[in-house]
Amino acid sequence: MAVTAPAPAARDADVAARLVSWLGRAVSWLTLVMTLMTFGVVVLRYGFNLGWIWLQESVTYLHAMIFMVAAAWAWQTDDHVRVDIVYRERSERYRNTVNLAGTLIFLVPFSLFLLLIGWDYVAASGATLAGSREAGGLPLVWLLKSLILTLPALLLLQSWSTARQCIKNLRQLKAGAPADEIDTETDPRLFVAQLREIGISSNRIR
């Protein structure tokens, strides 16, 4: 049996998913570091009457990095907060359609909007290398603000991977095959045509 090489679009989606996963797993370890640092700040302040602004700000930096970088990974692994009333009790076709529609209609526009409105703000901060306003604080406020762009960028990467996977699953379900037994199409130019086809077939969702 001949083996068909994955399409460039499918490979790109896999690379995006792996990048999101790797970054999420990497920053997840910062949770332990943040916890230990918070414990140290409390002990030093209330036990020895010592404190440093840079140490306290470091906890804030870690907290922001964990949530802004790992948000896309949490979505990838379905560990994000979901208002689940009827979702999990519905058919697989329904769930994939909801995920695809939510990604394309809500998440992608939101991420693009966040990139648009945050770009000048982050660029201005980076141009001046903005630092902490507190004496002894970290001179890395410009780096902290760059997370405003990191979050939507990673969400867009995961959106590409999620949309491809949902389309794949819906086409396989339409063909009557399990979602993990048939590969995606080899021509990335079919992406728009796939969306149109799924949109037509979604009227028959159970």
Helix count equals 7
- Main beta-sheet strand count, sense and barrel state: none
State the oligomer: single chain
The helicity comes to over 70%
Principal-axis shape equals elongated
Question: Care to count the β-strands?
Answer: 0
Class of secondary structure makeup: mainly alpha
Integer average pLDDT: 82
Instruction: Give the SSE string.
Output: HHHHHHH
Q: Unreliable stretches, pLDDT < 50, 5 or more residues?
A: 1-5, 180-189, 200-206
As a whole number of angstroms, the C-alpha radius of gyration is 22 Å
Can you describe what's shown?
This protein is mainly alpha-helical. It has seven helices and no strands. The chain has helices at residues 8-28, 30-48, 53-76, 92-128, 141-145, 147-174, 191-201. The two termini are 35 Å apart.
What are the defining features of this structure?
about 210 residues, about 70% helix, disordered C terminus
Write the layout of secondary structure elements.
Elements: H1 8-28, H2 30-48, H3 53-76, H4 92-128, H5 141-145, H6 147-174, H7 191-201
Helix pairs in contact: 1-3, 1-6, 2-3, 3-6, 4-6, 6-7
